[in-house]
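Exam review. A common question shows you a sequence with its structure tokens and asks you to describe the fold in words. Practice with the pair below. Do the first one on your own.
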Amino acid sequence: MRPELDDTATAAPAAGGTAAREPGAIAIGMQLGHFRIERRLGAGGMGEVYLATDLALDRPVAIKVLPAQVAGDPGRRDRMVREARAQAKISHPNVGHIYFIGEHEQLLYFAMEYVAGETLADRVAKAPLSVDAALAVTRAAALGLREAHRSGFTHRDVKPSNLMIDGHGVVKVLDFGLAAGDPHAATDGPVAQTSMAGTPLYMAPEQARGEPIDFRADIYALGATLYHLVSGAPPYQADSVEGLLSLHATAARPALPTKKGRTRTESAAIDALCARMMAPAPADRFASYDELLRALELASATHTRPAGFWARAIAGGVDVLVAGTVVSAALLLGEVLTGYELDSNFVPIIALFAVYGLVCTARWGTTLGKALFELEVVEVATGVRPSWRVAVKRTALVFTVPLALGLFTLIARHVDLGPKLVRDLTGGLTGLWFPICGLVLVHAALRVPGKRAPWDRLAGTVVRYRRGDATGL
């Protein structure tokens, strides 16, 4: 891979600046204010980073020094000071903190939280992450980026090397050196770019074109990062920066490579997430970080474990048994009271089951059968039990067709409507309702992200195992 395509940021140099010091002027053991330089950690387009000791508090810190070649540019210096002060206002476990900003012999520097751990670039270089591990990392990064967005910033350089896992397993979003935005401006507005900056391997098309961007450019880069974490390689490869940026803008995103031990539903879940996060048009991506976080939780077995075929099928069987028992008892009571043999039909069971499911879902988010398996029905958009409107929509999607067929058969039995073949056919289709639903659930459990049946996808709901932890949203 050519150097210009590697996992480092690219930024257009500022014009008019003169070098304040020669490169390599910082020596091990020298002091910048009350910080003693211990060793060099790395360098990027926006500065050199050193491990240092905070002599006042006796703790390790990371020191980033403004590159000498731009240290004399007043505009670059003012911008870095302004952004550092704003970033210091971001207080979140998933964002690296800035402690101090100062200047020593014309060297502008930042003292930041030192994260002792490894970057995601280092970890994925050893082996791709499991689906749940990748989703957990992505969710943590999204939480940190959401907090930065609330403070008025777009990161502009989200990538595996800017995500670090500390010794406690906490993900930290680092290096806001390319961040753009005004902390006093509305956070939902686009941010104008003064230069094309970022890392081409993960860059959103609109960012590469130099257009105004917002948080959705970070969501795109986070989607490319998620793909890299699971597959072991960035989504696109090319021999030039121009070719790489063209692929991001126009090429179909490659499908996730198959991997032993990864189920089809896991692969489908990641593919669906990456497709939405990496949509070429910003309007087709997630409309907010909250929406993205809910989608990440839905795809993660750690946060949301969707119910599979057997749990849902047996729970549904229990509910049908309850409804059928109530209908049979009602018919028997009617025969005793009236002395007439009442004609039983599948329609009352369907109707009672529909009402039973509607009321239980909207009122408690579960039914008797689902409760036995600790299952619940929740809205994907909110993570809580469905509203009455959503519950009615979901119930109608499940029961409208069999109920209509059953009613036609019932009426045709007493009124000469249509040929007998039609009546028998509709009656047979009504009786096949349960097997058809079972086949749909089997397909959803094996092939669909979140194991969501068609009525759940259309209604915006999911059947999952009940959880007692907070969503963190």
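Now try the second one, then compare your answer with the model answer below.
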Amino acid sequence: MCEASAYLIKDGKETLVLESVDILEPLDESGFMLKNIFGDQKIIKARILRMELVSHKILFSEDTP
């Protein structure tokens, strides 16, 4: 299994956005569409902070204008 869970880091805490993410697509300069293996999808307006591939994590940080 190569899926990852996506988390938004806010105020120093990780909040789960979507589990079992299979597809990550950039939408524009400020967001991504996430799709998981179950067909669920979410749009997140954030930037990728880092990816932890061994831990199967995608960590996002909110953009600040």
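Model answer, second protein: The chain has one domain: 4-62. The mean pLDDT is 92. Full marks require stating both points clearly.
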